[in-house]
Design brief:
By secondary structure, the protein is α/β, with parallel strands linked by helices. It has eight helices and five strands, in the order βααβααβααβαβα.
């Protein structure tokens, strides 16, 4: 039996919810609570980020950026390979992912080329979107690659969230 921990690519939206000031919206507050619960269990996974996550974490208010960067310091960073760039560019060129979501296409491509088990995100518009996921998976299968399971922390926590 393989005791290897499942690999998780932690996309930037996770870090943003983790480190943001408490949200006044019900949905935002729920996302923050679920994110914190999953974060407390992150040792059950082998977590990774990429330079894209680091770049996105650096953006905006300097003190908020520092909080985001500090929170992911313990994670290994996956390289942005030429293959990942090629995949992301193809996802955009084929309009599978909208051009305005180029960074999202790159997150998916990096997680895919590194064989991650999961891609964890709160981005349900361009990443955890079942229609887009289906089209991405179809393209990746055509080139012999498998899309990581894309989910939110709520889905990954499962019954532990109750």
């Amino acid at each position: 039996m393989d005791n290897k921990l499942p690999s998780v690519y932690v996309e930037t939206s996770i870090v943003s919810y983790l480190t943001a000031r408490d949200s006044s919206s019900l949905l935002g507050a729920a996302h923050q609570l679920i994110t914190r619960r999953w974060w407390d269990r992150r040792s059950l996974y082998c977590c990774f980020i990429s330079d894209v996550v680091i770049r996105e974490c650096r953006a905006g208010d300097p003190s908020a950026a520092q909080l985001r960067l500090d929170s992911v310091r313990e994670f290994s960073s996956l390289a942005i390979s030429d293959k990942a760039i090629e995949i992301a560019e193809t996802l955009l060129a084929k309009a599978i992912v909208p051009k305005k979501a180029a960074e999202d296409a790159l997150h998916v491509a990096i997680a895919t080329t590194h064989g991650m088990d999961f891609l964890l995100t709160w981005n349900c518009r361009h990443i955890a979107n079942p229609v887009i996921q289906s089209r991405i998976a179809e393209y990746l299968e055509s080139i012999g690659l498998l899309l990581p399971f894309i989910c939110t922390q709520e889905e990954l926590l499962g019954e532990e969230n109750e």
